[in-house]
Amino acid sequence: MKKIFSFLSFWVFGLALFAENSPNISRVIEYRPAPGQHINRLFPTQDMSDTPENALKFANEKLVNNAGMVGLGSFGGYVIVGFDHPIVNLKGEYDFKVLGNAFTNGAEPGIVMVCQDLNKNGIPDDDEPWYELAGSDYNHPKTIKNYEITYYRPNPDGQKSAIRWTDNQGDEGEIKHLGAQGTMYPLWIAENTLTFKGTKLRNTVIDNGGMFSLPAFEWGYADNHGNSEPIEKNGFKIDWAVDADGNSADLTHIDFIKIHTAQLQQAGWLGETSTEVTGIVDLHPDAKLPSNAVHAMKTADLEISIFAGHLTIKNIENIRSISVYSIHGSSLICTKNQNSTDISALPNGIYLLKVTDKDNKTFVQKFIKK
Description:
Elements: H1 10-18, E1 27-32, H2 52-63, E2 70-71, E3 78-88, E4 96-100, E5 110-115, E6 130-133, E7 144-152, E8 163-167, E9 172-175, E10 193-200, E11 206-208, E12 211-213, H3 231-234, E13 235-236, E14 241-242, E15 253-261, E16 276-282, E17 294-296, E18 304-307, E19 310-313, E20 319-326, E21 331-336, E22 340-342, E23 349-357, E24 362-369
Parallel strand pairs: 17-24
Antiparallel strand pairs: 1-3, 2-16, 3-15, 4-13, 4-16, 5-6, 5-15, 6-14, 7-8, 7-10, 8-9, 11-12, 18-19, 19-22, 20-21, 20-23, 23-24
């Protein structure tokens, strides 16, 4: 919604000259924005936005090596990116920086989430949990977890059509169309509805007699403070990662980053709040993975037996802990200093198993309880 431009700090390029790994985004894995006034306008030509493949190609051209900008539209719209190496969690330090289009009283914050490539196939699979980086408003009473919204394609999808929405809070409304803009529903999306789910932040827009302000949150959100602000304002620590229940995820590294627009609000003639991303920078691209980094193991290598409601690890000695998670990342069971754990209370289904030995080497894989 703000004036379209990209701002790339000179020091970003300096990092690239000396790093063995690229500090920047190497690929865009998925680009799925919500409706918004600039979603289709950012494409130079309409044929670049006529298919999901072309839209993804456009997003790669803009974000790989932090070369441009993509908009995420209204609440929930997101982009998922990857790197040519894992981003390592250096305890107590800021691990990466998200570049955006924010300025003083022009914040359009996005929630930042992270994921590990547990099976090393290069994509974030459905059974690999996402963890939210808990920013300054994570525990605010007006922050809504698991907020869900559905947007509806206008019929007909005209140049002047507003976008209707409903949510899981029993509310409904519309994204108002601004006079000079084109259609706001993403041109390459075939479905007549778009549904997004995630953490929603409180509205912060201030109407100063027709002059609108969008104040920033304190820390922990994309497109929230200007790119030249101190790292305490726009830097991110992997230490902030929490699971679906708000428990610390204690991640040694991450492989993927997802950013989604965190607010559902409009600022008069400025239009809807829409997070904009111009890049991500790993602040220590040549850091080495610690010895206790998560290792993906094949099922055949990790010998598991399930009998009479107990799961037993048969081929790892000196186990420090066995943890069981839902496929969405919720912690369900944690057993210390034993090679088995009681899973009798769990319903049948697919779960993630995390085993840590006495040397703090960690193994993660799926298992099925039948």
